[in-house]
Here is the input.
Amino acid sequence: MKHNALTLSILDKINSNALTLPTLPDIALRVKQTAELEDSTITDVSQVVATDAALTTRILRYSNTVLVRGVSTINDIHEACKRIGLVKLKNLAIGMAMEQLFDSKNKQIQIKMHEVWMDTVTMTSCAMGALEVCAKQKHIREETLFLACLAHNIGMLAILNEAETNPSEYATDAFLNETANRLSPILGGQILKQWEFEQPVIYAVEHWRRRETDESKKRIDYVDYLRLGAALNGYYGEKQDRMIRHCKSKGMFKHPDLLECERYHEISQAVLASFI
Here is the structure.
């Protein structure tokens, strides 16, 4: 297969271990490290969250949506964190902090960074809305899916960083899309392994783009939800209906049309409201 200059440049750096991968934002790293301490409490983590104004705003906004089902509005970050809970808070904070990485001094690249992040957020809202109305699967955890969704296209970050470093190889959006389809799953997996994310998230990010729909694979996993979220977000174009039918055939949901389901829209809009 013939590759464009950007793909070849990144492949060469991957093969020679010369590609610089993005690091987890400091606030996300501190939340992760604190939450994973054996004797960590929700107070410990909320104190870390409170040191970052942008993350505090997002967590407060999230805690006051139907996603958490509080009976009253909360304006205190420590109370917001208690409402969310320690397990969810860790993945939520890490995922939300990743937005800080999608920033560039190059105007053209910054536009693409913004597009990729907003597409990530809308895809996440679709997947989380679908999870709410789909048949419940005990092994599918809401907080794990949330993080997998926000990280599902993290490989694009490495590609855009490389395009910024070597603008002559960027050329066109078509080049960028070709490189993304070829390398985003590989780079995404490498980044998340470096960040020490849990294996189900890494596997989902590595496989949602490239794995064919396997009719023999009966067990529903995070890859299926990433694909369903992507389909509902229009990623598959003319193949959207086919992918949705495939997910339905696996027993993920029974509603005749997810896009017409009121609860789906309520949850997806709440997720969007947490970011916008």
Notes: The chain has one domain: 5-275. The mean pLDDT is 88. The CA atoms of residues 144 and 174 lie 32 Å apart. The two ends are 40 Å apart (CA to CA).
